[in-house]
Write a structure and sequence with these properties.
With about 450 residues, the chain is an alpha+beta fold. The chain has two domains: about 1-250, no CATH class; about 310-450, Histidine kinase-like ATPase, C-terminal domain (Heat Shock Protein 90), CATH 3.30.565.10. Helices cover about 65% and strands about 10% of the residues. The chain is built from 14 helices and seven strands. Helix 13 links the parallel strand 1 (about 335-340) and strand 2 (about 375-385). The longest helix is centred in the middle third of the chain and has 79 residues, at about 205-285. It is elongated, with a radius of gyration of 33 Å.
């Protein structure tokens, strides 16, 4: 029994349990069930092939690395996903297993120093064993509690973040190799300090000194593991944020150019509309005259290019004119209450981008509704040193949120979904705040700005 509990089969079981927590979301290959069952049997056979009392840093490190690599091969055979994702699950699983085993080793060392009893499942020759039934059950109970606690916290804290930050979709190959190198160093140094140093040094020291050394050594291993988790979770998240920010900046540059073009086009359209109206009145007043139906048709054609919303801000006028034309073409009712006198603290292209994204999201949402329910409301109010922007519209279906923003409902997320992120980017740029409400299938976006006195 000691031979089974103390060495490789137990390590293989712990590692497979840890890795399984993070591969559940991966796509299965054909024949997954029989592959995973046969693979597990083969992995345990491999673990039994290694002798229990392997001595030497090189051999012990080779043993654990071989067992770890064999789980990666099984993952590659069972899951239809890039190999970097298999490596990711393997590394984070190995890290979680290592944290749990190090915590147990630390507990075992402390108990041994104060009571003289120990049951070291991984290194039976280091501190000696008390194999009495009562001691074995006590240590095994503590072992189970530690592993259940560590694995449970990992599922609760880490697994959701892997899905939230789409870690599997990121190009993290170099990061994975770096963490792999870190875990390799940790495995080798851990083997040295746990299996060689105690035998040659610790037996000659006092118990208090041994305790301090044990805490430092196991603390080092735990620090390496926590650092690996930070690298595996936090750095990819930051890489994703930086990539999103870069995309938003690129979109902002396009919006700047688009604003310039649209402003020039709107100026030309307004001039042409003014000339057409003047010519229309000239024809009506002339002796030839025009039929009333033709006059109405021409007048409607001219009016569609003239926005009814003329505010104190030119950039806002461009946005409203552009979006008003789209709303008319889609039979969307647009209601605006605008006080734009204090919008001048923002740059024109920021105003164009902010309200353009707000209106685009609203138009997309209400376009899916029945024609009689297609309405958008936009209000800009100022009071004292505060400016409030409120947009509301109906929507259908269910909105899912990530990081406080609704996810895009379009099929492709590669080129969509940055509207709300761009809005938040601009709001944060001007030190504003935004709030989203989705009660009773009414989407409401409220943006607050505190103006300088």
């Amino acid at each position: 029994m000691n031979w089974f509990l103390s060495f490789n089969p137990l390590f293989m079981f712990e590692l497979l349990m840890a890795e399984s927590m993070f591969v559940v979301s991966l796509k299965h290959r054909k024949g997954f069930t029989w592959k995973i069952l046969v693979g597990i049997v083969v992995l345990f056979d491999i673990s039994f092939c290694f002798p229990p009392n392997v001595k030497g840093v090189a051999l012990q490190s080779f043993q654990f690395i071989t067992l770890f690599a064999s789980t990666l091969i099984l993952g590659l055979a069972c899951f239809d996903t890039p190999f970097k994702n298999i490596i990711f699950c393997g590394l984070i699983g190995f890290t979680i297993q290592h944290i749990a085993s190090e915590l147990y080793e630390l507990f075992n060392s402390i108990v041994h120093i104060y009571t003289g009893k120990s049951f070291d499942f991984y290194s039976p020759t280091v501190l000696g064993q008390d194999n009495s039934g009562q001691s074995l059950y006590f240590f095994f109970l503590i072992y189970l509690c530690i592993f259940i606690l560590v694995y449970g916290l990992s599922v609760w804290l880490l697994a959701p973040r892997i899905i939230q930050y789409d870690v599997f979709k990121m190009n993290t190959t170099s990061l994975l190799w770096m963490v792999g190198f870190l875990m390799l160093i940790d495995d080798i140094i851990g083997t040295v300090i746990i299996n060689i140093l105690p035998l040659k040094v610790l037996e000659t020291l006092q118990s208090q000194t041994i305790l301090v050394i044990e805490i430092l050594l196991h603390g080092y291993n735990l620090l390496c593991c926590f650092l690996a988790i930070v690298l595996l979770i936090e750095l990819p998240r930051r890489s994703q944020t930086e990539a999103e920010l870069q995309t938003i900046v690129q979109l902002r540059d396009k919006e700047k150019n688009q604003y310039k073009v649209m402003k020039e086009n709107m100026d030309i359209i307004n001039i042409k509309c003014h000339d057409l109206k003047h010519q229309l009145h000239t024809l009506i007043d002339s002796d030839k005259g025009l039929a009333s139906e033709e006059v109405e048709k021409i007048g409607n054609a001219v009016n569609i290019y003239q926005s009814a919303y003329q505010t104190d801000n030119d950039a806002l006028n461009v946005v409203l004119m552009e979006k008003d034309m789209i709303c008319k073409s889609k039979n969307i009712s647009l209601s605006c209450i605008i006080d734009a006198a204090k919008l001048n603290f923002m740059k024109p292209y920021d105003i164009y981008a902010l309200f353009g994204n707000i209106m685009d999201n609203a138009i997309e949402a209400v376009s899916k509704l029945d024609p009689d329910k297609r309405s958008i409301g936009l209000q800009i109010n100022s009071k004292g040193n505060f400016l409030t922007i409120t947009e509301y519209n109906g929507y259908q279906g269910t909105l899912n949120f990530r990081d406080g923003l609704p996810l895009t409902t379009k099929q492709s997320e590669t080129y969509h979904g940055y509207g709300m992120k761009s809005i938040r980017y601009i709001v944060n740029q001007y030190k504003g705040n935004m709030r989203i409400s989705t009660e009773k299938n009414i989407f409401e976006l409220i943006v607050f700005f505190q103006l300088a006195k």
